[in-house]
Amino acid sequence: MSRAILTGSRIRDRRLSVGMKQADLAAKAGISASYLNLIEHNRRRIGGKLLVQIASTLDTEPTTLSQGADNAMLEALEAVAEQAGDARVEADRVEELVGRFPGWAAKLAEQGDRIEALEQTLRGLNDRLTHDPVLSEKMHEVLGAVAAIRSTSSILVETPNIDADWRARFHANIDTESRRLAETSAAMAAHFDRLTRDDAGFTTPLEAISAFFERRGFHVEEIEQKGAAAIEPLIRAASEISGTSARQMARAVLSLYADDACALPLKAFAEAAAYLNYDPAALAQRYGVDLQSVFRRLATLPRQPDAPEIGLVTCDAAGAILLRKPPAGFSLPRFGAACPLWPLFAALRTPGLPTRQVVQSSEGASFIAYSVAGPVSQSNFDAVPVIRAAMLLVATEEEPAAPIGSTCRVCPRRNCQARREPSILSRKA
Question: How do residues 150-173 score in pLDDT, each as one tens digit?
């Protein structure tokens, strides 16, 4: 049933909620009770002066009766129905549900948001645990210590008359491995404790740098104003960046940011980007810079209400993710093990050849994926070229879109030929 013809149902629900009889409302509106009955059962359309009169009598706005629930509530429930993927869910009667049972509708929408948030958390935690090098290393140490203790214990149990010297050696071995197991377990507990704190727990320098940009919305105002002179103070003040490796990598990334900001001044570039509809090729031609510089600069623009959602992913020639800016509607894995269908990886096969493809995330959002790969600067002709690729994601309404995912472990799509491993999600695609 369309939203436009449910005005009668809303009139009836409103009349019942205020405790008014049908005959009384009809009398005050100047119509017969039988005609009002036809209206309330959506058998007669209503509008104009009569709608205004009835709305006034029921102490509500005419638009509340004619348009019903706000679009946000309807869109939320339609998303819940789509996620359910169950033929028994009457998705075409969402408006009627909201009109007749607003409390239940609000609860369903709230639970839908809650489920989506939990699924996103699950994807993030799974990705974190899967690619956490510290956890992987400690787990192997635990398994090694357990195997050694079990093997030594089995020998002692199965050989009761073992020589006293060998028995002492085996006891010493069990003691050593037990101590190692205890120390490794304590280290794992400490690592998990760090992960729960906001100011620590970054397992790699790349993750620390990513957290630095995430907290600033990927826009570093200090560099925009002071250029490269702001880099060292920023690094010293950043709680995320600690350790020699992280500081060294942060200098390189922030220096690149400063170079981009100098070549593409913020105000002029933002205006040009909006004028050229965020087309990276047109912007690169206007400013005489390479595409990857434009990609990075677009990803660092301050968020504007009328601007599309923009994301960025870069990787090396091995396909390992270096930097990432996830756009709304597209969950990106932290580092490594991303979806092999990303245009980003296809660009590595043809360095220097830019591509444009409309893609759809597993969350259902569509993006234009601009991708290009190329060598970083070389000091001499004999050096092996180091290739890096970048993919700019710009939200769009274009169709059709090629389906891609985040990473196989949390991708709900079925029958994907590129899948490496089963998904932990049971939700239907």
Answer: 888 888 888 878 888 888 888 888
Residue with tokens 């149902």: 9
Full-prediction pTM beyond 0.70? no
Is residue 337 within 8 A of residue 325, CB to CB? The reply is no
Of 238, 183, 244, 182, the C-alpha closest to 213 is: 238
Q: Where are the domains of the chain?
A: 3-116, 133-195, 205-262, 304-429
Q: Are 6 and 40 in contact, with CB atoms under 8 Å apart?
A: no
pLDDT digits (tens, 9 = 90+) for 221-263: 999 999 999 999 999 998 888 777 788 899 999 999 999 999 9
Q: Beta strand 310-316 with 387-395: parallel, antiparallel or unpaired?
A: antiparallel
Terminal-to-terminal C-alpha distance of the chain: 26
CATH superfamily of 3-116: lambda repressor-like DNA-binding domains (1.10.260.40)
Whose structure tokens read 């008014």? 20
State the Cα–Cα distance between residues 411 and 160, nearest whole angstrom.
Answer: 54
Task: Tell me the pLDDT tens digit for each residue of 336-393.
Answer: 578 999 999 999 999 999 999 999 998 888 999 999 999 987 667 777 888 999 999 9
- Under DSSP, the state recorded for 92 is G
- Tell me which residue has tokens 């434009």: 294
| Identity of residue 394 | V
